[in-house]
């Protein structure tokens, strides 16, 4: 029988009971998957009664939708903000946003990774939405003359997305090769630096000499 996952700390002064339940559901879904998580487990994790969960979310499907909507809004909201104009480094800017999501919202990152590999509708929705946002960024870089002329923008977008999702999906294996967990500040910074360098030097053109 699946036990309740302990959710990350929340500010009790600013969240409603519905928020707390959704947060607990996200933590459980990220760890065990939606199919293996019961409303009773979510209630135990949130510290509320099963009746309270059903009061806010009548069915498991409605709770899953609430979590999915929250995750989608958070990701798209943070990643769709405009990239900075040159000479600012847009690669580092996006890398910092992705690292920030992993560091500040680890349950979201884990849930996204699970959704994209388990064939759930959310996975397809997220992948397509992130592809659209990412493609718009690479097209803008190309219009500005920042990319090499031979860059395949579709694969530039896919590769950047795979690098982020893959690192989370394979975290158990990645951790074995690092001195600290992948999600520690030092290792996230190492990962971001390495990924940014790969994207910048492999896809962007050399800046013209002043």
Account of the protein in words:
- The chain is an all-alpha fold and 210 residues long.
- The chain has two domains: 1-58, Arc Repressor Mutant, subunit A (Orthogonal Bundle); 66-203, Tetracycline Repressor, domain 2 (Orthogonal Bundle), CATH 1.10.357.10.
- Helix content is 68%, strand content 0%.
- The chain contains ten helices and no strands.
- The chain has helices at 17-32, 39-46, 50-56, 60-79, 90-104, 106-117, 121-143, 153-169, 171-175, 185-203.
- α4 packs parallel to α7, α5 (90-104) packs across α6 (106-117) and α6 (106-117) crosses α7 (121-143).
- The termini are far apart.
- The model is unreliable at 1-13 (pLDDT under 50).
- It holds the Pfam family TetR_N.
A few lines on this structure:
The protein has helices at 17-32, 39-46, 50-56, 60-79, 90-104, 106-117, 121-143, 153-169, 171-175, 185-203. It is 68% helix and 0% strand.
Oligomer: single chain
Compute the number of helices: 10
**Could you give the count of β-strands?**
0
Name the CATH superfamily classification of the largest domain.
Tetracycline Repressor, domain 2
Write the CATH architecture name of the largest domain: Orthogonal Bundle
Main pleated-sheet profile: none
Alpha-beta content class:
mainly alpha
* Low-confidence residue ranges: 1-13
Indicate the CATH topology of the largest domain: Tetracycline Repressor, domain 2
Q: Strand-residue fraction?
A: under 5%
Shape: elongated
Q: Class of the largest domain, according to the CATH hierarchy?
A: Mainly Alpha
Helix content: 55-70%
Write the H/E string, N to C: HHHHHHHHHH
- How many distinct domains? 2
Calculate the terminal CA-CA distance, rounded to whole Å: 65 Å
Let me know the average pLDDT.
89
Return Rg in Å.
19 Å
Protein name: TetR/AcrR family transcriptional regulator
InterPro entries: Homeodomain-like_sf (IPR009057), HTH-type_TetR-like_transc_reg (IPR050109), HTH_TetR (IPR001647)
Keywords: DNA-binding, Transcription, Transcription regulation
Domain HTH tetR-type: 15-75
């Amino acid at each position: 029988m699946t036990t309740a996952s302990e959710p990350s700390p929340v500010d009790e002064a600013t969240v409603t009971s519905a928020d707390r339940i959704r947060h607990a559901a996200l933590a459980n879904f990220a760890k065990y998957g939606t199919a293996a998580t019961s409303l009773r487990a979510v209630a135990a994790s949130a510290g509320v009664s099963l009746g309270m969960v059903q009061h806010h979310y009548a069915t498991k499907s409605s709770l899953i939708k609430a979590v999915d909507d929250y995750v989608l809004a958070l990701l798209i909201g943070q990643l769709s903000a405009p990239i900075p104009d040159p000479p600012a480094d847009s690669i580092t800017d996006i890398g910092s946003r992705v690292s920030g999501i992993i560091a500040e919202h680890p349950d979201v990152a884990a849930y996204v990774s699970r959704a994209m590999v388990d064939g759930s509708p959310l996975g397809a929705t997220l992948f397509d939405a992130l592809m659209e946002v990412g493609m718009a960024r690479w097209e803008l870089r190309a219009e500005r003359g920042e990319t090499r002329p031979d860059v395949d923008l579709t694969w530039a977008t896919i590769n950047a997305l795979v690098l982020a999702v893959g690192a989370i999906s394979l975290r158990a294996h990645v951790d074995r090769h690092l001195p600290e967990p992948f999600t520690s500040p030092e290792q996230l910074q190492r990962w971001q630096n390495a990924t940014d360098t790969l994207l910048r030097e492999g896809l962007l053109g050399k800046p013209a000499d002043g």
